[in-house]
Amino acid sequence: MSTRRNDARGAPLRWLAGGSLALAAGAAWAASALDFDVWMRAIDERSVAVQKHIAAGDAAAATLDAQTLEHLYGLTEDWFTRDGQAPDATAIAHDGRALAAAIPVALAASDFAGAANSARAIARACNDCHDTYKPFK
């Protein structure tokens, strides 16, 4: 067999492999969009939960909620950064992450009022972002 013949046989396999990679990349992006929706719902749920736990004086549960919020906001900040179409949404996610990180610090100092202020600021930031990026039509 000549080299030329082997190259000709390998070409369809390379095209198939390249096409498979392109499809996988598209599927990964779609999965990320689905993940983004899950993160948004989880942020909403944890935002409410952290406020309730702070109001109840449950620092341990509020700390866990805040740590989860911080992680979720990190994921959304990365999402908006990668998307590149909403720099102010990136900033809102960055600020949300900082607010979430401030809650455990405040709770460790027994500053429930400060933790509550950060938690309420997170809820307001959600509304601010949704007013711009998720309007009702």
Topology (SSEs and partners):
Layout lengths: L2 H53 L3 H25 L3 H22 L3 H22 L4
Helix pairs in contact: 1-2, 1-4, 2-3, 3-4
Write a brief caption for the model:
Helix content is 89%, strand content 0%.
Provide an overview of this structure.
The protein has a single domain, classed as Up-down Bundle (Four Helix Bundle (Hemerythrin (Met), subunit A)). It has four helices and no strands. Helix 1 crosses helix 4, helix 2 runs antiparallel to helix 3 and helix 3 packs antiparallel against helix 4. The longest helix has 53 residues. It is elongated, with a radius of gyration of 22 Å. It starts with a helix and ends with a helix.
Architecture, CATH level 2?
Up-down Bundle
How much of the residues is beta strand, in percent?
Answer: under 5%
Order of helices and strands: HHHH
How many beta-strand segments?
0
Q: Can you summarize the main beta sheet?
A: none
Under the CATH scheme, which class?
Mainly Alpha
List its traits.
Four Helix Bundle (Hemerythrin (Met), subunit A); 89% helix; 137 residues; single chain; mainly alpha; 4 helices; 0% strand
